[in-house]
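Field log, afternoon session.

UNIT: design team B
ACTIVITY: writing a sequence onto a fixed backbone
BACKBONE:
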């Protein structure tokens, strides 16, 4: 019986020493690691031209993007999607003929952007204009955890109207997506700078 007590005492002593060591090791200079995100490898910049027969517009786009026809239910002519392969992102392009309805089209574009105010930290508007090619519009940078990070519209004010919206199809996280959004924004600005009506 005495031997059994000695073994029990020894076992409790060993446990107590490990518990004491555990508590003493948690003090001092310990600090938790900051939350990290996966490293995202971005592709090399290279561009090609979208100049499909019958389309009323053309532009340059990155070679790592795949252009797909829009397959939505209420699709209209000349609507396309630019798929950013491997990044779960899509730039939706919709086109409308201007037939005395430019104010309504501008209001729709504005409404689509400002639907994101619930999740957006800020929405920055940048006017765009190229009188030589008759391309005018606005780029909207939507900051924060909104589903769409960037939208824009382009028009010649008389015949053509085009709207673009960049969406990420995963849970929005402004910190982890920031480098990707910045990278894609450069490509979208290149697309706008090279955009022309036919």
């Amino acid at each position: 019986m005495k031997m059994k007590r000695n073994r029990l005492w020894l076992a409790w002593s060993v446990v107590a020493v490990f518990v004491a060591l555990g508590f003493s090791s948690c003090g001092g200079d310990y600090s938790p690691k900051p939350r990290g995100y996966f490293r995202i490898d971005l592709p090399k910049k290279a561009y090609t031209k979208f100049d499909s027969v019958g389309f009323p517009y053309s532009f340059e786009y990155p070679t790592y993007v795949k252009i797909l026809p829009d397959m939505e239910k209420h699709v209209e002519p000349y609507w396309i999607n630019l798929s950013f392969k491997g990044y779960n992102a899509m730039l939706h392009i919709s086109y409308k003929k201007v037939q005395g309805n430019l104010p309504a089209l501008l209001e729709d574009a504005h409404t689509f952007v400002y639907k994101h105010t619930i999740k957006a930290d800020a929405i920055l508007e940048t006017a765009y204009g190229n009188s030589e090619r008759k391309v005018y519009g606005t780029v909207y940078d939507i900051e924060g955890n909104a589903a769409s990070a960037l939208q824009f519209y382009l028009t010649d004010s008389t015949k053509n109207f085009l709207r673009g919206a960049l969406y990420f199809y995963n849970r929005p996280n402004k910190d982890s997506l920031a480098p990707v959004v910045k990278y894609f924004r450069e490509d979208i600005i290149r697309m706008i700078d090279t955009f022309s009506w036919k």
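LOG NOTE: The helical segments are 2-25, 102-114, 174-193.
NEXT ACTIVITY: expression trials, pending approval
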